[in-house]
Specification:
By secondary structure, the chain is α/β, with parallel strands linked by helices. It contains nine helices and eight strands. Helix content is 40%, strand content 18%. An eight-stranded parallel β-sheet has the order 7-6-5-4-3-2-1-8. The two termini are 20 Å apart.
């Protein structure tokens, strides 16, 4: 059974090899540490990782406080409730799940005195299930225009999770096309946060700039 360092090395080698094959630059690797201890994050930190993803504010905030490392970039990748925004901004450098006007309003209010803009991705729902997080594709550009008007927010691009109903390539093709349309309006919003443990190599073929990989690196989660 490979240990943590070996799993991390394998994933990074696969990413590097695929990027070389595609003739593209390497993406930002975000190690998803939800349901894992701060001790595991510290081990990954000592292995050189600096970008970590958490789904829930109530787990990520105390973990960040316990570790107390200023050079860690915490990415909030799960759905964010408006009443958790204040707590989220105490540790998260980047929010990947901006998906509605009410959340944008709260982020705008809570960042008004922020020195550096908060990085945000707009999460797009690629399914027909409205209960899943994400703005519908046909409403994405309108929300992006609103984000771009807020000086304390930096519109990074789009985030999406491949649906369970389709092959990931079909969903990645859709989000890549939507990203192209977004960049035509907001050229700096070139980020594409797609690709997880089961489909990160496919995501590289569709322009992923941020990979959110958990189990393939961390092993089975601790519930």
């Amino acid at each position: 059974m490979p240990n943590l360092a070996e799993r991390l090395a394998t994933v990074k080698d696969q990413i590097s090899n695929e990027c070389t094959r595609l003739g593209r630059s390497e993406p930002t690797l975000i190690v998803v540490t939800k349901n894992h201890s701060s001790e595991l994050v510290d081990r990954l930190y000592r292995l050189g990782e600096r970008n970590f993803g958490e789904n829930r504010v109530q787990e990520g905030a105390p973990k960040a406080l316990e570790l107390g490392k200023a050079d860690i970039n915490w990415h909030l990748i799960g759905q964010l409730q408006t009443n958790k925004v204040k707590q989220a901004l105490e540790f998260a450098n980047t929010v990947h799940s901006l998906d509605r006007q009410s959340l944008l309003t709260e982020l705008t209010k809570r960042t008004i005195e922020r020195e550096n803009p908060l990085e945000v991705f707009i999460q797009v729902n690629l399914t027909s299930d409205d209960a899943r997080g994400g703005v519908q594709p046909n409403q994405t550009l309108m929300l992006a225009d609103a984000v771009a008007q807020v000086p304390t927010l930096k519109l990074m691009g789009l985030m999406a999770v491949a649906s369970l109903e389709n092959e990931p390539e079909a969903d990645f093709e859709r989000i890549a096309e939507l990203s192209k349309r977004l960049r035509a309006i907001h050229p700096s919003a070139h980020g594409l946060s797609i690709g997880m443990s089961g489909d990160y190599l496919q995501a590289l073929n569709y322009g992923a700039t941020h990979l959110r990989i958990g189990t393939a690196i961390t092993g089975n989660r601790q519930y």
